[in-house]
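For the sake of clarity, the format in which proteins appear in this thesis is described at this point. Each number in the token line that follows is a code from a learned vocabulary of backbone shapes. One such record is shown here in full, so that the layout can be seen directly:
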Amino acid sequence: MNNEYSISEITIVTPKEALEKASIRIGDGKIKDFSKSTLKDYPIKGDYILFPALINAHDHLFGTYYPKIGNGPYICWLPWDYDLKSSEVYDERNKNTPYEVYLFGAYKNLISGVTTVHDHIPHVVNNTLIDKLPIRVLKEYTLAHEASVYDLKWGDGIEIEYKRAVEKDLPFVTHIEEGFDEESLRGVDTLEQLDALSDHTVVIHGIGFSEKDIKLLAKKKVNFIWCPGSNMFMFQRTAKVKEIIEAGVNVSIGTDSPASGELNLLEEVRFAKKVYKEMYGDELANDSIVRMITLNPAKAFRLDKRLGSLEKGKLGDLLIIAGDKKKPYKSLVEANLKDIALVIMEGKPLYGDVSFEEMFNNHKSEYTSVTIQGKDKLIIGDLNGVMEKMRKKVGFHKELPFLPVGN
């Protein structure tokens, strides 16, 4: 089997424009160019749009369960964590193995158009699990849990982890100012004192950022990840995102885990748009939101030469959605799970409508059939089997709304 093929007659969203009735050629897992292959072509009929596959900039895959836990608002993340770990839901989740919980998270992301996830947790936890998953979970980063005394001591400490990131040209990732107590509000100052602020730094949440903090982050070219769903659930407040954007900070969107955040990245972007309107009485532009789940996180994680946009030489991570070709960005921001028509990672189809079965067969993908939001789909692996195994372990017909299998 030759692995070169093209997808044609579709609206393609590149960094500069939306190309109508265009083609993209994939080979060896990468984007070759924007021409039609002479070997194998898949013309797309109807209202479909091609984007780069999505990037979830912040998830905790080990927390992929439901329902949400908490009785906020909290003053910081720590009392929420106490509530989580003392809950019956937490005990129920732990009847599944860590790998099984990671599979829930991987499939949750895949069916929402995501091929790349940053799983914020120590390497010693996830490195033994993530290579077995159907999507890409980032490995190349250094980290701390948080810049405060509440830090869970992930990694070797902020100073060592940050220096390691700079030496190896990696992102250094940490939660910051996830709360309003005096200690949490010192987060940016702590990183500055430790000389850990630069374009290598990726900070998450920032609900306590002051105007001074925002100016410093912009000056140091720090990357920011916004998780409005989780923030509003836990704290009834989120970061000053308009001020952060206007200061010139590179902003991405992440879901956090379903234990506190939205069900998936599609739900998160709609929630982000809603919260922004409520906070500022203004619209957060759809094209800006799309960048926050594609190119911006690729830049934050120092992957923009490989991912985040449809350009020659980048990895063949593609997303096709059903939507209005005349309004591509709006269509993606308003997309539901049923609108995810095809997800491809490095040229290989992982999930999509049954109309793409020929492509799955041509790539010899080991797929099964599944129904999502009333629409028949094909998916890599055996999601139905994953759900059945989970239900046997917990002892009843458990529903996971972020995996609405059969619904």
The chain has a mean pLDDT of 97. Residues 55-300 form a domain with the TIM Barrel fold (CATH 3.20.20.140).
